[in-house]
Amino acid sequence: MSVAGRPAAAIVYRLRAHEINLFVTRSASAESRPVTLSKPRGFAMAAWVEDGLAFAAVSDVDLQELTRFAELLRSPAP
User: Fold this and answer.
1) C-alpha to C-alpha distance for 61 and 41, rounded to whole angstroms
2) Which CATH architecture describes the domain 2-74?
3) Would you write out the chain's pLDDT as a tens digit for each of its 78 residues?
């Protein structure tokens, strides 16, 4: 699979009756960027860059739940 012309991995998570699709590609920049939120075509999207990888989580959940999902992914493991 590719996203914006770059090879990508897609991971599907389930949150109750909803799916969250997480797309991961190499970033064009090594610089980390914080989470940005948007609602393209009625879907919630959280996107960020970390450690040279670009992440985009897309779902029909509300932005607050998707923000929490992104925060959990970005938290260091205990």
Assistant:
1) 13
2) 2-Layer Sandwich (3.30)
3) 656 677 889 999 998 899 999 999 998 888 889 999 999 888 999 999 998 899 999 999 999 999 999 999 887 666
